[in-house]
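Suppose you are handed a protein chain with no further information: no name, no annotation, nothing but its sequence. What can you learn? This example shows the usual starting point.
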Amino acid sequence: MSQTLAARIAGVMGFLAVALGAFGAHGLKDLLAQNGTAAIWQTAAFYHFIHAVMLCVLAERKPFPAVAWWSFLIGIFFFSGSLYLLAATHVLWLGAVTPIGGVGFLIGWAWLIFKASGTAIGK
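A reasonable first move is to predict its three-dimensional structure. Written in structure tokens, the prediction is:
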């Protein structure tokens, strides 16, 4: 993947994080209150936004840290995506999907800890 495409996808993810956060706070306010899931939506938007920013940061790094970048993108889809759906639909089994995204986030952060500098810690 080119860094330009990675940066554009990161921009889309950031845009969506802001749009979905606002949509939940305003457009879905009554539904989320009725479902008792406003906090779930807020958590989804928070993690989505933080990792969208990381996608932007990583898209500009050389060499391109593909493992961390893809891990964060997959994390956004599974973690935040499942929480958005759970909050809006109140289909509780979607919560079982959320940890897949959490693992994606953890892989991305672990990769940055151990591989980003080109050497493993303790070497």
